[in-house]
Write a structure and sequence with these properties.
The protein is mostly helical. The protein has helices at 33-37, 73-79, 82-91, 97-108, 117-123, 130-144, 155-180, 194-203, 214-227, 234-244, 249-261, 268-281, 286-294, 315-331, 336-350, 352-356, 364-373, 381-402; strands spanning 4-9, 12-20, 26-28, 57-60, 65-68, 71-72. It has a domain at 4-50: Rubrerythrin, domain 2, CATH 2.20.28. It has a 3-stranded antiparallel sheet. A 3-stranded antiparallel sheet has the order 4-5-6. A hairpin with a 4-residue loop joins strand 4 (57-60) and strand 5 (65-68). The radius of gyration is 23 Å and the shape is globular. The N and C termini lie far apart (61 Å). The structure holds acetyl coenzyme *A. Acetyl coenzyme *A is lined by residues 264-266, 268, 293, 301-308, 357, 359, 362-364.
Length: 428
């Protein structure tokens, strides 16, 4: 392989180094481009831009491969617990039994949130979207733990913040739901594991315990693992950019939650179920909606379809589709939305429009049907995504701070007015 790339500008040839990742991904290193040539690159939406070198997640969009630290997503989703995967992403290795016990015990020490935070919940309107509540509450954690404000204080302090945010996100998430229905919040119970505890806080009531169903726990565990990291996606890039200014981890993750909320990113899981409900109410005529999705005059898009990097299939969608059948069957749920989703997928996969644009179901297409089957309200779907993505955000932030990456600051090509003189108000 050539180790240099040549670029010719204004009749002069410049040589740029080519670098290769451990999975043979090639990149032209343009870090000295402007210094050498006076030029910058333009890549709106960063479709061709590597923002960092990372050792956390590898994905091959053409082959539909996704690995966390070298382990395949298929194997992890089948065999691991979400806590093992969190440890793997954040610290680089699967934990030994002792490491896992310590990791879980340390997290359990911090599941409560300060009582004063309950007053914040009460101040939100009842109809507040839980993602808005969650990003605000996570950001406010920084005000309760001022020692977190310097993210580089010490490895110990950094770990404490990591444990705190992992411990508190399920509590804050479940409380944002309880608050939206104006129910009394349920306190965490530390005899439960991470996923069980979240379900308990979501569904238990002061008058009634929540029956922890292993089928439901296993489905949540799998979904969290499938969402745990996805290299430099929109919310993770947000996390890395915010963190690069040395902002604390709480503010950084809060920004990631806000980025995730958008319907083109994590918010798509809520949009998918709303779309399926709309199609169902409309009589279930799938062909009509496929036509709408193809019509450029119509703003309707097939939500849960298409992906910036997967151009063949999304391996997470394959796992979720199977899990979806499995969970619904085990729980004895017969959801007509699943039949509509499968029909939509079948029709789209045979349609020239979708085939020629490489549009396939993504991770969000079937996840909502599982969430619905296990009783998660639609507005909480993206919160579920955030809970799953948290270890990935933490791992990416930790890697970036440890590598002492510079502040993220892209350039631009200015296309506005050129220099002109100020015109006094009376003369305009
Ligand atoms: N329905 C109909 N047409 C679509 C869809 C869709 N879901 N997605 C893309 N297209 C079309 C576009 O109109 C465009 O057509 P054109 O070439 O004729 O103009 C072409 O396919 C390429 O689409 P882009 O929007 O340019 O692709 P991009 O990589 O920028 O966007 C995205 C990817 C945002 C995921 C897009 O496919 C989309 O909006 N999908 C629906 C929302 C969704 O499911 N988001 C979740 C993504 S997964 C995640 O974030 C966890």
């Amino acid at each position: 392989m050539s180790e240099i790339a040549k670029i010719e500008l204004d009749g002069k040839v410049y040589e740029l180094p080519v670098i290769e990742g451990s999975e043979n991904e090639k990149a032209i290193d343009i870090s000295k481009l402007r210094e050498l040539t006076g030029y910058i690159t333009l890549d709106t939406g960063y479709k061709n831009t590597g923002a960092t070198k990372s050792a956390i997640t590898f994905l091959d969009g053409e082959l539909g491969i996704l690995h966390y630290r070298g382990y395949s997503i298929e194997e992890l989703a089948e065999k691991a617990s979400f806590m093992e995967v969190s440890h793997l992403l954040i610290y680089g290795e699967l934990p030994t039994q002792t490491e896992l016990t310590n990791f879980e015990t340390n997290i359990k020490k911090h599941t409560l949130v300060h009582e004063d935070m309950k007053r914040f919940f009460e101040a939100f309107p009842a109809q507040a979207h839980p993602m808005g509540v969650l990003s605000s509450m996570v950001s406010s954690l920084a005000t309760f733990y001022p020692e977190s404000l310097d993210p580089n204080r010490s490895a110990e302090a950094k770990n404490l913040t990591i444990q705190r945010i992992l411990a508190k996100l399920p509590t804050l998430s479940a409380w944002s739901y309880k608050n939206s229905i104006r129910h009394k919040v349920m306190y965490p119970r530390n005899n439960y594991n991470y996923c069980e505890n979240f379900l308990h806080m979501m569904f238990a009531m002061p008058t009634e315990d929540y029956h922890i169903d292993p089928i439901v726990v296993s489905a949540v565990n799998k979904l969290f693992i499938l969402h745990a990291d996805h290299e430099q996606n929109c919310s993770t890039s947000t996390v890395r950019i915010v963190g690069s200014s040395q902002a604390n981890l709480y503010s950084t993750v809060s920004a990631g939650i806000s980025a995730l909320w958008g319907p083109l990113h994590g918010g798509a899981n809520q949009e998918v179920i709303e779309m399926l409900e709309q199609i169902h109410k409309d009589g279930g005529n799938v062909d009509k909606w496929i036509l709408k999705a193809k019509d450029k005059e119509d703003p309707f898009r097939l939500m849960g379809f298409g992906h910036r990097v997967y151009k063949n299939f999304d391996p997470r969608a394959n796992i979720i589709k199977k899990a979806c059948d499995d969970v619904l069957q085990k729980l004895g749920v017969n959801d007509p939305l699943l039949a509509i989703a499968k029909k939509l997928e079948k029709v789209a996969l045979e349609d020239e429009y979708f085939k020629s644009r490489n549009l396939y179901p993504n991770v969000d297409f079937y996840s909502g049907i599982i969430y619905k089957a296990i009783g998660i309200p639609t507005e909480m779907f993206t919160v579920m995504f955030a809970l799953g993505r948290l270890p990935g955000w933490i791992a990416q932030w930790k890697e970036m701070t440890e590598n002492k990456e510079p502040i993220g600051r892209p350039r631009q090509v200015y296309i506005g007015k050129t220099s002109r003189e100020y015109v006094p108000l009376s003369k305009r």
